[in-house]
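lol ok so funny story. i was supposed to be doing the assay writeup but got distracted and ended up predicting the structure for this chain instead. priorities right. anyway since i did it might as well share w the group, maybe its usefull for someone
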Amino acid sequence: MTQEYRQPVYTPPKGATDLILIRHGESAPARADVSFPVKDGHGDPPLHPQGERQARAVGERLQNDTFAAIYVTKLTRTHQTAAPLAAHLGMVPVENPDLHEVHLGEWDGGLYRIKAAEGDPIYREVVASQDWSAIPGAETREAFFSRVRKGVRDIADAHADQRVAVFVHGGVIGAALAMASGSEPFAFLGAANGSVSRLVVQGDHMSVRGFNDISHLCHL
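and the output, tada:
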């Protein structure tokens, strides 16, 4: 009988870590007259009711997967988004110290959203330069990408040959996937709230295996 060669199904290489990156659910709206609560200089809004629904949908989507760990950032919205999945799996999320959102300086606390909606000239400069450093007091792209790389690498080093769920922020997903793909810095910004992306990490090598999957959110 002639041997048949079927198309292979992708599996992460030996020693790699399979990171499932989940963006937090939609957070509370910004208002010009009230700033978000702040933690360590970062705006720290809770989830909007729609974000809570998105968090429950994420939990339902991933509840039958096997994860070695669940990671969150120091900010409330990632904890709240991870909570349904953690409850399904009986796991306690672990905070990663490097994967919180980019620090927006004087525009943290909700002002960034307002300036973006208004088309502020500094916001336009941020988009054109693909760097947040035009905002007074903001973190530079170089500094942000460096700590995201460290956060991703630390998780990968701790979980070789394992899959982990990492609840993070849009900027973090954008940075990680841009570094992995060699794209322009802002190419992957805009992942939907509650979306699922996938990054396989082996040492210094990162591979994008999925981006912005929202199939579990279509009914919301």
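The first helix runs from residue 49 to 62. The chain has six helices and eight strands.
back to the writeup now i swear
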